[in-house]
Design brief:
143 residues, mainly alpha
Length: 143
């Protein structure tokens, strides 16, 4: 029963926390991008440092959430095999319940990763746009 709770509450809770963190960081970055004045930065490097701050968190969540979901899948399948091995769960209903538990973790991992990667790509694109505008501004100053 402990492995079932580990998948139900542990893995799913970790993925939920990861989702909240990714969305919170994305919201903070979107707000920063709206108010940033690229003219306040003397170099491209300083601007890039500010624009990309904390974006690695979103990328890390997006790239690791499937693995956390996979861990839940493995634990769910282990739970199913364990129940089957004891002879108490050799019926089809118990086997399907265990497999559904495993698939729930997989789905949660993907539902965490896909939006995080989308958010990261949108933010990365916006940061690049602002950097290009600053680069153009610096080039015009040289003329």
């Amino acid at each position: 029963m402990g492995m079932k709770h580990l998948v139900d509450y542990g893995v799913i809770a970790i993925l939920a926390i990861m989702s909240v963190i990714a969305v919170a960081v994305a919201i903070e970055r979107f707000k920063f991008f709206k108010k940033v004045n690229i003219d306040n930065y003397k170099t491209l490097e300083l601007l890039e440092l500010e624009l990309t701050k904390h974006m690695h968190i979103i990328a890390t969540i997006g790239s690791n959430a499937p693995y956390v979901g996979l861990l839940g899948t493995v634990l769910g399948i282990m739970f199913t095999f364990s129940v089957m091995g004891t002879g108490a769960g050799a019926n089809v209903n118990d086997i399907m319940t265990g497999l559904a538990l495993a698939l729930k973790a997989t789905a949660a991992g993907l539902l965490t990763a896909i939006p995080a990667i989308i958010l990261y790509n949108i933010l990365h694109r916006k940061a690049n746009e602002l950097l290009l505008l600053k680069e153009d501004s610096l080039e015009r100053e040289k003329l």
